[in-house]
Write a structure and sequence with these properties.
This protein has 132 residues and is α+β, with helices and mostly antiparallel strands. It contains three helices and eight strands, in the order βαβββααββββ.
């Protein structure tokens, strides 16, 4: 958006799977929910595997997933070495982003701790998430 303000903001909501915090703790980092700038932390949902356009419903509120969160060097300012834990390279040279997903607010509403999350898949064909 900084380069072209006429483009839609597809990064309104940042969601992270709580299991990432477990993995970070296991690797020696002390990071808790909310410390990486996420708006919503989930459990038992493979956020990174959801296709573009998936809708997550939290009560009356709805978020539509637009892509993967692309962490930057600033994450190391929070904790040295953290960037290497949330962005990796596969054996084939592909970048793997683990820092959650981004979405847009499709319907506003109150989101509370402990809310059930309903998942609505987009119509086929499904497209994998890429960085936004």
């Amino acid at each position: 958006m900084a380069a072209d303000p006429s483009q839609p903001n597809v990064r309104q909501v940042h969601l992270i799977h709580g299991e990432l915090f477990d993995a970070l703790r296991a690797s020696g980092h002390t990071v808790e929910a909310g410390q990486l700038g996420e708006n919503i932390t989930t459990r038992e949902i493979d956020l990174l595997a959801l296709p573009v356009g998936t809708r997550l419903r939290f009560g009356d509120a709805m978020v539509t997933i637009t892509g993967l969160r692309n962490p930057c060097q600033q994450i190391n300012d929070f904790q040295p070495g953290l960037l290497k834990q949330v962005i990796r390279t596969s054996g084939e040279g592909h970048v793997i982003r683990l820092a959650g997903v981004m979405g847009i607010v499709s319907r506003g509403g109150r989101v509370m701790t402990g809310d059930t999350i309903d998942i609505e898949m987009p119509p086929l064909p499904h497209f994998p998430l890429t960085r936004v």
